[in-house]
Amino acid sequence: MGYAPLSLTDLAVSSVLLVASGALSLALRLGLARNMATAALRMVLQLAVVALLLKFIFEVDSPWWTALLAAVMFIGATYETVSRQTWRLPGWQTWMLGAGPQFFIGLMTTLIATAAVIGSDPWYAPRYVLPILGMVLGNTLSGVSLVLDSIVDGASRGRAGIEAQLALGASRFEAMSQVMRRGFTTGLMPILSSMAATGIVTLPGMMTGQIMAGVNPVDAAKYQVMILLLISGATALSVLVAGLGAVLLLTDERHRLRLDRLLARATTQ
Amino acid sequence: MLRVAYLKAGPLPPLSFQVENGTCLAVEGPSGSGKSSLLRAIADLDPSSGQVFIDGAARHEIDPQAWRRAVRYVAAEPGWWTDTPRPTFETAFQGGAPAPASKVLRLLHRLGLTEGQLDQSLQTLSTGERQRLALARAVLDEPRVLLLDEPTAALDAATAALVEELLKYLMLSGLCLLLASHDQGLIARLSDARLQLAKMPAPRHGPSRAVL
Q1: Strand, helix or coil at B178?
Q2: For residue A178, how far is the Cα from the chain centroid?
Q3: Termini Cα distance of chain B
Q4: Which of A17, A123, A194, B207 lies 20 to 30 angstroms, CA to CA, from B148?
Q5: Using CA atoms, how far apart are residues B134 and B24, in angstroms rounded to an integer?
Q6: Domain ranges of chain A
Q7: Chain A contact present for B123, CB below 8 A
Q8: Nearest Cβ partner of A255 from B65, B74, B77?
Q9: Quick one: DSSP state of residue A117?
Q10: What is the C-alpha to C-alpha distance for residues B162 and A151, in angstroms, rounded to an integer?
Q11: Nearest neighbour of A167 by CB, restricted to B43, B66, B77
């Protein structure tokens, strides 16, 4: 078994349905063609660049190049997490919340995967490190974005109730417990539902890819199980750490609710 | 006894005063003069500088949860965090024991409320009912200082009289009361002293003065 490489003609054939729907949209003046064309071109361009970059990095097989690309991925994930928030904390705090948990937990998870589980040689082999880090960060990114947004939103909306509890002598964690629970549930929802749907509704992309590349489905499933376990663990940990961090930054050591620390963000999005 | 020394709360100038046990200090001033800011700062719900003492013990030496169990703030529009009032009456924070049900019922009756209202959705209770429920919850664990922000604003004369009776009763057993209100009659009947807050000017530096 092996995989069947695709030619550029094959790719052109794959675009037939997209082109047809674009033509339909033009004919009916639905105004979708332009957006669809931009998105498709962007996708092709991004993947082409990434493919060439990965090809280069796999060939040089240097830990430094791997680390550099990993750093770019971290920065991208942090930027994406922070830019999804509708609020800001002063100074470095927002960035710390967006970056810290994902950085440490993403790094740890990836190293567990390559060094301890897969046992790739060398452990920094970019062929394993970069795709796994990408999958981990993609999930921690959405989990952390959701938990931060949910906790800040919950604290703002629930302000009166939280302060009523504080006034009755609650600690900051008692007063914020509902907000925290809702935040953690929200943050974990995507990964929990994707684990639940796996194999029934969806065949995971990685497993599909391995199967098409000729890997025995049982072996592909084992890889998928490993990845999902690591991803869900990393996401759960990142969500918990980021959520607790948000609660600590929204309250102070005298157990006050400090919404005054939040800066409303200029609506640029 | 509650003693406030050079307390700087929000936009207010530093304030010093004291309230003996079993007495009431009325906090007066137009809307926006910082009555709520003062009460919130005393309860340590907002950061403030200066000192507050209760029976000689300084606030900064007492952990904040214990402070707020002794020095209880009730907002003008009290917040809730459950669907019905009952769970809030059955919750005791920091591992304390909830008050006995008989005590809850006695308090409710004193304020003209019924047990059935504990299980009513908060959305269907009137503003005045919620205000009295919050007061009942606030005095349930017998705080030593009560900081009330417009406690009768949403009440008719009859229920306001019930609130007044309860406050008088609590003061007889030694409660220190700080009462921010626009109700001149209530202030005249309850208060032993008055704290007048001046209208805050828009800019930061202004001739605002507090006169005891």
Answers
A1: strand
A2: 25
A3: 17
A4: B207
A5: 20
A6: 1-60, 62-266
A7: no
A8: B65
A9: I
A10: 39
A11: B43
What six digits make up the tokens of A83? Answer: 């830019």
Nearest C-alpha in B relative to A169? B65
**What are the tokens at A35?**
């957006």
pLDDT digits (tens, 9 = 90+) for A13-35: 999 999 998 899 888 888 888 88
pTM: 0.85
Contact between B186 and B160 under an 8 Å Cβ cutoff? The reply is: yes
Counting one residue from chain A and one from chain B, the pairs whose CB atoms sit within 8 A come to: 70
CA distance B30 to A120: 73
Q: Mutate one of A159, A171, A254, A261 to test the B interface: name it (highest B CB count within 10 A).
A: A254
Q: Does A167 contact B65 at a Cβ distance shorter than 8 Å?
A: no
* pLDDT tens for each residue of chain B, 212 residues long: 999 999 999 889 999 999 999 999 999 988 888 999 999 999 999 999 999 999 999 999 999 999 999 999 999 999 999 999 999 999 888 878 888 999 999 999 999 999 999 999 999 999 999 999 999 999 999 999 999 999 999 899 999 999 999 999 999 999 999 999 999 999 999 999 999 998 765 544 444 444 44
| Burial zone of A96 (CB within 10 Å; 0-12 exposed, 13-18 middle, 19+ buried) | middle
- The DSSP code for A113 is I
Query: With an 8 Å Cβ cutoff, are B78 and A256 in contact?
Result: no
Neighbour count for residue B6 (Cβ, 10 Å): 11
Q: E strands along chain A, which residues?
A: 87-88, 263-264
The closest alpha carbon to B133, from B104, B175, B161, belongs to: B104
Burial of B153 (0-12, 13-18, 19+ CB in 10 A): middle
Compare CB distances from B81 to A161, A171, A255 and report the shortest one's residue.
A161
Close Cβ partners of A72 (under 8 Å, ≥ 6 residues apart): none
Cβ-contact A127, A154 below 8 angstroms = no
CA pseudo-torsion sign A108, A114, A119, A124: negative
